[in-house]
Amino acid sequence: MTANNDGMRRTPIVVLALSALAVGTAVAGPSVPSTPATPKPYPSVSNAATYKTFDAAGRVNGSAKWHWTPTGGNCCETYVANAGGRILEYGGSLPYYSDDNGRTWAQVDFLTPLYNGEGALVGGPGGDVFGIGWDPYTGDHLQGVKYTAKTKTWQVAEAPLKTPFFDREWITYAKGPFVLDGVKVPYVTIVRGGTVTKQVELISGDGLSYTTVSTPANEATSEPVRMTIPVVKNPDADSWQPNPGTYTVPLNAGGVLLLNNDSDGLPCPAARLNASTTTWECVQLPWVPKGVVRQDSRGWLTQVEQTANNELELSTSRDGGRSWKRMTLTTPGEQPFASSDFFDVKVNGKLGQAVVATRVNDKRTKVGQDLVWRVDVSKAQPRLLKTYAVGRGDLATGIGVVSALSDRFDFPSVALLPNGRIVASFDDKSTPKAQVRDTVPSTNPDGHSPAIAILD
After folding, report:
1. Which domain holds residue 408?
2. Does residue 221 fall inside a structural domain?
3. CA-based, 20 to 30 A from 82: which of 117, 189, 249, 418?
4. HSE-up (13 A, CA, CB side) for residue 208
5. pLDDT in tens, 269-279
6. Is this structure's pTM higher than 0.85?
């Protein structure tokens, strides 16, 4: 996925701000004090809309009703996730959530004054939530965010170690136990971000204190260890699927995989985080993973890979990756994707469904249309159920800072709720211009900001 705000790939140069640490193996540090964060009702707006649907051949075959809101996000980034049915949004400086399918919202306020940041959230077990937020304009803040469902409390803590300009930060939750700095912890959260490099990863054992530094390319240097993926059920796996920009696969039985990508420079197709040392080691799986891989609550695997400029291949495995069933998703009118690997994937094992979100451009006008495929993965052979247009499809957008003075849409984001509703990011001429978010106007006052739509 395109992970940098500038939409460009960078030469991996490892630099660590405010630290003289020599990174080669994981380096752990102390816990960081946290401060409370306060949720409060947010005056959101809900707009009714009807958008087209398509059949498997890409022909318009009807319409679907949605409602959409500009709640959250920033000029160009809107990031949605799901935690047991709660809709999460953290595209701008502050997190937002909705417990009624996006009709009403709450904003989570921090004590730290923030100007115009960005963030990401992921669900955890039992309704817990883990997030990371970065604000370059108020002292280059990087902050861990955590919601504990048992106590219904939000917390925030500064992350003191990071690379400079830590843009487009992503977060992964991984079930343990792990041994971190000599202490056994029930889980870890992993954060990656940065423009100059994304090779430096930050690891926390409490979801708040990011004081352990890891560089997968420097750690995963041994011969691959043979590994199988246990097919075990875990209801929380339908909530903790991260953004594709993490390149990670949280595993139901515990542990996490990191897939090969241009940012990390792994010498192997996949690595796992060793539970005893909390360092990365190469592994040999029953197949060579490509694209985005998810493990759902049944323990089944779903893999989505771009195979052409207008096609994705979706594959499912019920045996830990030893055998696969495949199908092809083709864009309506064979329109090309807005950018390479420009898609997000979420799978709900209990529903037996997967959703894939993307944005395509008209071949002639370059006007973009946001799309979501809903796929039946309840049986071995996946089957397309419906293709949804999200938004009017009447706006040309760009990616990254090169598009700062035009309409900008940096990445797609999608969530699949337990009730089957889809939440997806989109951008068109109906979304607000000069949208004020977190009290800060858009960097492009004449441009449209992405919003989120919820299927009725």
Report:
1. 35-455
2. yes
3. 117
4. 19
5. 999 999 999 99
6. yes
